[in-house]
């Protein structure tokens, strides 16, 4: 779930990617219909909004705001930034983005997770094997990184589990 700013009001929406589009659903149970569909190719991803919304980021097309989204944590923000950068076809390194209102340690966490999810998404798109070493977005995606996405049921609820084990450190 991400918070989505719509008509000056934040609303929680289930967000997913399909065919280079960000689909916004009222909740996870209703995936057949969506509230909005945002084409991502050619969009820019820009983190930051204000000091009240530390994990917010914007999608821009030709400098115009398309959407304002907010994650609930730095980890979620990093994962979403990486995936959205890959889906938009951006050449932007997550480390070059401006992370206003976030402290240095949190920013480093966001950047590391953004790079990992960017590499995972990009490798899945270019190669049948996401574990082959290749250069994406101007930096090497480590071959020692084991990535796994899995749906996990906990107390009757289903959560998306992301397991990332890094055997190589980003520098």
Automatic annotation (TrEMBL):
- Source organism of this protein record: Characodon lateralis
| Gene3D superfamilies, per database record | Pleckstrin-homology domain (PH domain)/Phosphotyrosine-binding domain (PTB)
Q: List each copy of the PH domain by range.
A: 1-89
Output this protein's name: Actin filament-associated protein 1
Provide the protein's localization. Cytoplasm
Chain segments annotated as coiled-coil in the UniProt record: none
Cite the PROSITE patterns for this sequence: PH_DOMAIN
SUPFAM superfamilies according to UniProt = PH domain-like
Gene name on record? AFAP1_2
Keywords, sorted A to Z: Coiled coil, Cytoplasm, Repeat
Give one Pfam family, short name only. Answer: PH
